[in-house]
Fold this protein.
Amino acid sequence: MIVFKTFLKVLNKCKGIIIFETALLIFFGGYNIETNDVSINFVSSNPNILIINSDKKEGITKNLINYIENNSNIVDIDENLIDDALFYRDVNYIIYIKDNFRNNFINNNEIGIEVKSTGDYQSSLAEMMLSRYLKIASIYNEISNSEEELISYIDNTLQNKSEIETTSKLNTEKLNKATVYYNFTNYCFLAGSIYVICLVLSSFRNKNIKMRTIISSMNYKKYNRKLLISCSMFAITLWLLYVLLSFILIGSIMYTTHGLLYIINALVFTFCTLTLAFLLGNILKNKTVINGIINVVALGSSFLCGAFVPMEWLPDYVINIAHILPSYYFIKNNELLKTIEVFNFDTMKPIIINMIIVIIFSGLFIIITNIISKRQRKID
């Protein structure tokens, strides 16, 4: 009880940093949630096409022009301004239909079509549209007895369109919000735990308190265990606070299986940050270096592991370095959770493995702490 009461007294002096970190989470976490909204709706996009026809607009030539007009945005641009229009993306694709195109096509001669494009995805869509028409028309031209029959075959084929159906039932917008929020808690858990726990432990390292502890009958492992339990209560309180905020900021998705797994993943990482902070608290002897450690550990791991910048945007060498940090496995799990639609052993296996790795880190930190504490347990 003496250890716990002393811990609470020191903790009371640290309430400012806890409030500050929570405010950061609400502000930056909430801001990132809003700016990272994604939509899963499919929106059809039509390219801007200019048709310059030098042939008579009849028969297969007319049919081709009608098909392009019905599936794109036809623009009208002066021929002298075509290059400028391409440069400024006022037009994506230009189709030049040369004189006598109709007769050449029907007689299987070299067709007279030339194109210019901007080279972007809209021009690629236009190119696929034109190629589809010409390929279908060429096939039916071999079996048709007349131009009217050829056009009829082409129209019947081109009117068949694929139906696009979204089969995934994932609420990707809310899952993305949850991922962004819990990724950002990586910094808050590390910064809050390291600052408070290191400050508390540095107070227990006061020379008079240290000498009384050493000469007492309390075993160093029992002493560390009591301190660890006291720090655990703080860490759990911090975890509960951030989980409660996630229900407020994110909403209904937190009441699902996905939400439960985000919470469990955060709990496992909370224990890891606790043991890491406990280790650093036993190493550091000067309170003035705590802020520097926060910058190195909390900010460094958050940037390297994708808490602030999405993992897919980070270079491969940065991701490779991040594998040596527990934050990587915590954030990786958050990223995996937003993609899982069905929960089974195969989908849960990588998440469980990542949690086990984080727990191994925690055990390693505890072992190192006991070794250091044993060596330090002497009267200077």
In short: The first helix runs from residue 2 to 12.
